[in-house]
Design brief:
alpha+beta, Beta Polymerase, domain 2, 6-stranded mixed sheet, 26% strand, globular
Length: 117
């Protein structure tokens, strides 16, 4: 599974259980850490956790095990590291405050790199 296919699997897994405002950011030209960042919102801490759990389950089933998870204890912002894709699931107030889409959506050439899923 290549990074593009993995990013689509993540978007589909988030969409399956009603993730809100799903945005896929292609960051291949901006960092060597990952190829894609996928940002989504959940309606509550439980929903955030359910979204992350669904992505982890679907990626494992596709043979792509997560290499790390951060933030599960608070439930306001959970980061799931799939190596080729970093998945950020947050409550809307946290997402608005950090505004990752703005931070990562401008490429080196100044063009927006985000796509909404």
């Amino acid at each position: 599974m290549n990074s593009e296919q993995l990013s689509e699997l993540v978007v589909d897994a988030l969409d399956d259980i009603k993730g809100l405002n799903i945005v896929k950011l292609d960051v291949r030209g901006m960092t060597a850490v990952t190829d894609f960042m996928i940002v989504a919102s959940g309606t509550s801490s439980r929903h955030v956790q359910a979204l992350v759990d669904n992505v982890a389950e679907k990626s494992k089933a596709a043979g792509h095990r997560p290499i790390g998870v951060e933030g599960e204890e608070g439930g306001e912002w959970v980061l799931l590291d799939l190596n080729d894709a970093l998945v950020h699931v947050m409550l809307p107030k946290v997402r608005e405050f950090y505004n990752l889409e703005k931070l990562w959506s401008i490429s080196a050439s100044g063009e927006a790199a985000a796509t909404e899923g």
